[in-house]
Automatic annotation (TrEMBL), chain A:
<dbReference type="InterPro" id="IPR002634">
    <property type="entry name" value="BolA"/>
</dbReference>
<dbReference type="Pfam" id="PF01722">
    <property type="entry name" value="BolA"/>
</dbReference>
<protein>
    <recommendedName>
        <fullName>BolA protein</fullName>
    </recommendedName>
</protein>
<dbReference type="GO" id="GO:0044572">
    <property type="term" value="P:[4Fe-4S] cluster assembly"/>
</dbReference>
<dbReference type="InterPro" id="IPR036065">
    <property type="entry name" value="BolA-like_sf"/>
</dbReference>
<dbReference type="GO" id="GO:0005759">
    <property type="term" value="C:mitochondrial matrix"/>
</dbReference>
<comment type="similarity">
    <text>Belongs to the BolA/IbaG family.</text>
</comment>
TrEMBL record, chain B:
<keyword id="KW-0676">Redox-active center</keyword>
<dbReference type="Pfam" id="PF00462">
    <property type="entry name" value="Glutaredoxin"/>
</dbReference>
<keyword id="KW-0411">Iron-sulfur</keyword>
<dbReference type="GO" id="GO:0044571">
    <property type="term" value="P:[2Fe-2S] cluster assembly"/>
</dbReference>
<protein>
    <recommendedName>
        <fullName>Monothiol glutaredoxin-5, mitochondrial</fullName>
    </recommendedName>
</protein>
<keyword id="KW-0001">2Fe-2S</keyword>
<dbReference type="InterPro" id="IPR036249">
    <property type="entry name" value="Thioredoxin-like_sf"/>
</dbReference>
<keyword id="KW-0479">Metal-binding</keyword>
<dbReference type="GO" id="GO:0005759">
    <property type="term" value="C:mitochondrial matrix"/>
</dbReference>
Amino acid sequence: MASSSSAGRQATRIPGPVETSIQQKIIEAFQPILLRVYNDSSKHSHHAAMRAQGGGSGETHFAIHLVSPSFKGKTSIARHRMVNALLKDEFDNKGLHALSLSLKTPEEWEKEGGGEMRSE
Amino acid sequence: MSFARTGLRTLRSLPSAQVYRSSNILNQRRLISDEARKLIDNAVQSNPLVVFMKGTPEAPQCGFSRAVCQILDVQGVPREKIVSYNCLEDQELRSAIKEYSEWPTIPQVYIKGEFVGGCDIVLGMHQSGELENLLIKEGLAPPLPEAEPASKA
């Protein structure tokens, strides 16, 4: 089962509604070998765009590391477009503002050592 | 409306009443209008390298925009070859460019009228060497001393 970023030291952190729906949609659409959803919103809450919204909802900036066979034979633009399209409602209506994506096929991921995107 | 002004400069051959009207429409519509599309078309097709970003290459207002500018710097692209549009100064452009590219985030990089990608993709292409090849091929970055001169095909 693909798991979220709420591992290790962050075990007590409860994912918000946007993070939860990102995870659910991705698991359903991509059957991931690996899925990590990192909420980086607090690192960006001081930015002009976020200040204008009172610091944002706390669920504005995410990074996703996703390994899925669905990406086979697809260019990076096409892979990004697949994820962006899946999360259109989050972008348009749920305050999602920035998404950093690392999208790999199982083969590419294994070739690179099959590690984590982040060591935290 | 700095973007609209820039675009309108290129439309100066039109009668002034017509230019005024298109500028008004651009101001009022929420969804991308034909006019906004034309302005962006014109921007990306008349400049070989366009970056839609937050802030300016000299003073980026967002880490992702900053990263893209830094990568172009590292690649040796001269500043004067980068045409940048500050989406923070122009809310119309900010929403229009997302629709135009069908891409939900900023920055966005265009080379020779083609959408290249945002920060992640540009970084990935930088790391794989693909970006260097593209920039050299399009005459935006100097070829490596040992490399063959880029073909003019």
